[in-house]
Amino acid sequence: MQDTETHPIAEGAALIADWLRLEQADGVGCRSAHALLSAFGSPAAIFRAAPGALAAHVSASQARALCAPVTPALTALAEATLAWLAQAGHHLLTFHDPLYPASLAEIPDPPLLLYAAGRIEMLARPLVAVVGSRNASVQGKLDAESFSAALSGAGLCVVSGLALGIDTAAHEGALRGPGATIAVVGTGLDRVYPARNRLLAHRIAEHGCLLSEYALGTPPLAANFPRRNRVISGLAAGVLVIEAAAQSGSLITAQMAAEQGREVFALPGSIHSALAKGCHRLIRDGAQLVETVDEVLLAMKVSPLAAIGQECSQKRDAGPDLTAEEDADLLAALGHEPVALDDLLERLGADAGELGGRLLGLELAGLVAQLPGGRVQRIWH
To answer: What is the distance between the alpha carbons of residues 146 and 106, in angstroms, rounded to a whole number?
Structure first.
């Protein structure tokens, strides 16, 4: 995979411009670009080649695009990229860079360029992806956070996509452990999307790594996010899906992971929950059903004992015993599914005012969540 080129920062503007020119060439996708690299060895050699030589490997229109003169826009992009790289913690890995992740290089259409902000050494760690619904439930987000904290505590680096919901919870949990986290985004790294995760992105850049295949200035285009999913799965040795609707984008990540020969794990849920439909479909299609972190760690060939310190630390910080005897009847009546307040009153034979006070106490303790439509749900830790 490697040629004689070294790190792009050391080579300067000319090398960066060549890679950007190849990556930005109109109509030349990843697969065509890699075919050209295999034939000619480097972007510089591609642009020195005659049109006829190029046409032996790509279409005539692609050959014309490659022979087109450098535009002012491309020159400006190269200059902006150089300025961005001059900032501490910023990196640009070409496909020929020794630091380019080997697992990602093996997929059918790996990115030509990887922009990174933060601790680039994270890319060399054992990686596991945790993904799921943007519109996650309270329980789903808690599961994503606790699973990711334990995975990170075991030394695995958690990869996710910085989206709201499960992704956000996965990053938050992973930041609590030494394995930390990588966020693969669908914009240029000079932007943060969604804006609500700006502070989280800064924390990841400090303690983990932000990663993108998209050039600086790239906005959050809808087509970018399904495409970046192949990078999430390509980096990781396994993908854990926590809550996914029947048409969830997380299923795309899981499908790509299976096609790439990665492990696919899914947390089961209630047969009544729309957010469990995607996970149940994955399990029917061959994904491994998991209920504990240990099952993921064993499949990833990581000793569960490595996570004990992290789990014990979390338990010590959990505060007093929140399943006090006086609330045992209420917690039991809540069961495992969301329940309407009227049904809960009937189950307990309780006064509405008294029940409201008890539910508020349990909600403040993190054991109950208020849901839309006047329903409540027990949260399992």
So the answer is: 31
Q: Which class would CATH give 325-378?
A: mainly alpha
Q: How far apart are CA 293 and CA 145, in angstroms?
A: 12
Specify the residue for token string 């009227």.
342
Indicate the domain borders of the chain.
8-118, 120-316, 325-378
CA distance 129 to 123: 13
- Banded pLDDT at 381 (limits 50, 70, 90): low
pLDDT of residue 322: 44
Mean pLDDT value across residues 34-45: 96
Is-contact 334 344, C-beta < 8 A? yes
Tens-digit pLDDT profile for residues 232-248:
999 999 999 999 998 88
**The CATH fold of domain 120-316:** Rossmann fold (3.40.50)
User: Tokens 């007093």 map to which residue?
Assistant: 320
* pLDDT tens digits, 212-228: 999 999 999 999 999 99
Taking the C-alpha atoms of residue 233 and residue 324, their distance in angstroms, rounded to an integer, is: 42
The angle subtended at Cα 323 by Cα 171 and Cα 290, nearest 5°, is 45
CA distances to 186, 187, 224, 225, 226 from 220, in Å:
6, 5, 7, 8, 12
- What pLDDT shows up at residue 168? 98
Residue 134 has a CB neighbour count (10 Å cut-off) of: 17
Q: Which long-range contacts (C-beta less than 8 Å, at least 24 apart) are formed by 200-204?
A: 200/162, 200/168, 200/171, 200/172, 201/162, 203/175, 204/118, 204/162, 204/171, 204/175
Q: How confident is the model at residue 65 (pLDDT cuts 50, 70, 90)?
A: very high
